[in-house]
Design goal:
The complex is a heterodimer of chains A (85) and B (431). Chain A contains 2 helices and 3 strands; from the N terminus they run αβαββ. By secondary structure, chain A is α+β, with helices and mostly antiparallel strands. The longest helix of chain A is centred in the N-terminal third of the chain and has 19 residues. Chain B has one domain: Cytochrome-c3 Hydrogenase, chain B (Orthogonal Bundle), CATH 1.10.645.10. Chain B is globular. Classes of the chains: A alpha+beta (85), B alpha+beta (431). The interface between A and B is medium-sized, with 23 and 19 residues.
Chain lengths: 85, 431
Amino acid sequence: MHEERMLQDIRRKVEEVARDNGATHVRRVALWVGALAHLTEDQARARWSEMTRGTVAQDSALDIEQSKNLDDPRAQSIVLTSIEI
Amino acid sequence: MTERTIKVDYVPRVEGEGSLQVKVRDGAVEDVRLRIFEPPRFFEAFLRGRKYDEAPDITARICGICPVAYQMSACHALEKSLGITVDGGLRELRRLLYSGEWIESHTLHMYLLHAPDFLGQPDAIALAREHPAEVKRGLELKRVGNRILQVLGGREIHPINVRMGGFYRVPTLEEVSELRPQVEKALLLAEESVRFFAQLSFPDLTEDYEFVSLVHPKEYPMNEGEVVSSEGLRLPAERFEEAFEEVQVPYSNAYHVVRKGRGSYLTGPLARYALNHDRLSPRALDLAREVGLGKVERNPYRSILVRSLEVVHACEESLAILERYRPPPKAWVEPAHSPLPGTYAAITEAPRGMLYHRYRVNAGGFLDEARIIAPTTQNQKRIEDDVRHVVGRSLDLDDPHLADACERAIRNHDPCISCATHFLDLTVERQ
């Protein structure tokens, strides 16, 4: 449930950044996933192509950096680090 | 177009989501549907087959704001299967724990979710810029509520120290004496809060609510009482389902609960206040008089005032309990017997209203069935009614302003839905 909402919020942000930069297509989206985040790489990949269909992020590649650092202050978070347009 | 990489560094948020569909025909509201998309969480299903004493900690996970309510309703229901009655110092400690939750939950709702609506701010972050002293007051008050949960429950969120018959451990005198001055300070902050909220400008509105809450002959209700309605109903809490039923609506994942043969009703602070006004603590009663609040309040926007009075009550109650405190000789009451098979139910007053738990226990002490009816669900239909009235009064507004008015109507009642209401997706079909 939470994972789905987070991915939807990432998609919303990607669309916003693309729009603000006049992009019609997003080529690549990079995520950093904390060691304790409520999202796994598998979940993200499984949902991303589906949930971006019909948006500027359709067919975008998803780069995921999975952190193993339990002491990172953002260990429970996911960070949308960059997008390539 | 050249390829570019844009650094974003954005941390996504987990938010609820709701939508509101409004149909208007010939200038009149024909239909209003509040849709909650949140998927089912299946708590009732995965409680099946679990041991009876796991229910308090499992159900506590339903809500991060009011976990104590879940623990209390589960304990009160299932202690009946064990022949346990919790009284004396342990009963008082339960009221103290519950008071801590009322303080932290109400304060969150009042200062961070509701107050921005009256002060022209989009959210609490913006409010903190314009009114830093007030937001600091709210956060300090909430901190003390959390501290009570920490001392009694082992931690602020999802406490781990509640068990059948009482607690795993009770606080030491040192812990209590550390807590007392903090609650004394909180009482002052709570009183300041009532006076501050009383100065806000409220839309002039009266709703015709059927109020339903627990009523206890001697105290403002938290853990015990009969179910009473402002429209004449009175019955023991365990017979709740004789008079109320959950109804599925095709357009939402959230159940509606109705009073059989009547329809929507309201549970929570406005209902508790209307049905238990005389049993508020002395300072809360004095303040109610001082700010001109009558014995019944039917303006949903003024629920922020009633909530603030309940915080005063909870602080005063906490203080009285802390002053009397002597560590009980044992932290819990031993069961009179193994769990007897049967069906057991209880209601306690979560900050947002009545929380009903019913369990069917089998001969081995495992749960065959669980039914949990949260206050959010009970208020869902009534909130939809409020929103319908707002839409009826505000048809001249453009869609963004209408959405804002509807979100405010929801935030009057429920912090859980409030998470969703900043994302209310409004569709107005005008014919």
